[in-house]
Amino acid sequence: MTQLLEPTGGKIERPKDWFYTEGRDAHSFTWILSRERPAHGYETGMRIQPLVGVKKATGKTGRQFQLDFIADKKKDPAVRVLSTCDEREQQLFTRVCLETEEGDDHILYSLFWGSNEMDMAVVTIAGTRKDLWETYAPTFDRMGAFELIDMKRFEK
């Protein structure tokens, strides 16, 4: 089923019977799609968090903010890096990824930054227990093709 990501009008495939929550603060939105109710944490799911004003808040470009995140993960002795992917243009953003094992969890980070000097970064975290990864990896692949912003909604 298709889930709208409000207020941007984006869309993501949400598995039947999965839960959806959204939240926001002054600098970001957060959307969570999870197999369990996310009120007190969840074991299997995806979190999408766009961050606006990254340069103003951190002094870093969106690209540097994301690349520093990856570098920090790679240095962390508690993190086992399984794979990475190179920069790839995707509509209004450039994407890189990092797949890890952290404790009992298998996590795929997809990290985006705005093209054309757009001061925005997007972090998606898809994860579950290591022993469940093979079961849910195809679901995360489908969900990973989400549309963050419905540009038609903002055309005048």
Report on this structure:
The protein is α+β, with helices and mostly antiparallel strands. Helix content is 22%, strand content 47%. A seven-stranded antiparallel sheet has the order 3-4-5-9-8-7-6, sandwiched between helices. It has a three-stranded antiparallel sheet with strand order 1-2-10, with no helix packed on it. A hairpin with a 3-residue loop joins β1 (2-5) and β2 (9-13). The protein is globular. The protein starts with a strand and ends with a helix. The model has no long low-confidence stretch (mean pLDDT 92).
Describe the secondary structure blueprint for this structure:
Elements: E1 2-5, E2 9-13, E3 19-24, E4 29-34, E5 45-52, H1 54-58, H2 62-75, E6 79-90, E7 93-102, E8 105-114, E9 120-129, H3 133-143, E10 147-149, H4 151-154
Antiparallel strand pairs: 1-2, 2-10, 3-4, 4-5, 5-9, 6-7, 7-8, 8-9
Number of DSSP E strands: 10
Shape: globular
Low-confidence stretches: none
Mean pLDDT: 92
Order of helices and strands: EEEEEHHEEEEHEH
For the termini, the CA-CA separation is 29 Å
Rg of Cα set:
15 Å
How much helix, percentage-wise, in residues?
10-25%
Number of helix segments?
4
